């Protein structure tokens, strides 16, 4: 049997709040929710999902990475058609734009709980 990606999970001190941010950003639907766990699905799809689990001692990673600091172990890449408009929409929802931007057609951002994510144009 071949493994398939069932979902990606982010640790956070407030799963419902972070799920609400990504639900608004992605337009995904809530599949389940309680104070310690929330799962979102793309409309009409069950998998892959995006989950949010309680992590009371969550420490956001440092960007760009530096030795001796909390390292980024994963991030979401979100493809958009209008980079500037989607960057501003993400900011209006509570995201922040990182000062260090390594590529022209990519925007490194942080969600409200400090997880890095990238917005990128097709072909970037």
Task: Summarize this structure as a short list of keywords or feature phrases.
31% strand, 2,3-Dihydroxybiphenyl 1,2-Dioxygenase, domain 1, four-stranded mixed sheet, 124 residues, 2 domains, globular, alpha/beta, 19% helix, 2 helices
**Order of strands, widest sheet:** 1-4-3-2
What's the CATH architecture name of the largest domain?
Roll
Evaluate the radius of gyration: 15 Å
* Main pleated-sheet profile: 4 strands, mixed
What structural class results from the helix and strand content?
A: alpha/beta
Counting DSSP E segments of at least 2 residues, the number of strands comes to: 8
CATH topology of the largest domain: 2,3-Dihydroxybiphenyl 1,2-Dioxygenase, domain 1
Helix tally? Answer: 2
How much strand content do the residues show?
Answer: 25-35%
Assign the CATH superfamily of the largest domain. Answer: 2,3-Dihydroxybiphenyl 1,2-Dioxygenase, domain 1
CATH hierarchy, class of the largest domain: Alpha Beta
The termini sit apart by 32 Å
| Number of structural domains | 2
Give the overall shape, derived from the CA principal axes. globular
**Average pLDDT number:** 93
Q: Give me the strand/helix succession.
A: EHEEEEHEEE
Domain VOC: 4-124
Protein name: VOC family protein
Pfam family, one: Glyoxalase_6
InterPro entries: Glyas_Bleomycin-R_OHBP_Dase, Glyoxalase_6, VOC_core
Commentary on this structure:
This is VOC family protein. InterPro entries: Glyas_Bleomycin-R_OHBP_Dase, Glyoxalase_6, VOC_core. Pfam families: Glyoxalase_6. The protein is α/β, with parallel strands linked by helices. It has 2 domains: 57 residues, 2,3-Dihydroxybiphenyl 1,2-Dioxygenase, domain 1 (Roll); 66 residues, Roll (2,3-Dihydroxybiphenyl 1,2-Dioxygenase, domain 1). It contains 2 helices and 8 strands; from the N terminus they run E-H-E-E-E-E-H-E-E-E. The strands form 2 sheets. A 4-stranded mixed β-sheet has the order 1-4-3-2, covered by helices on one side. The chain is globular. The mean pLDDT is 93.
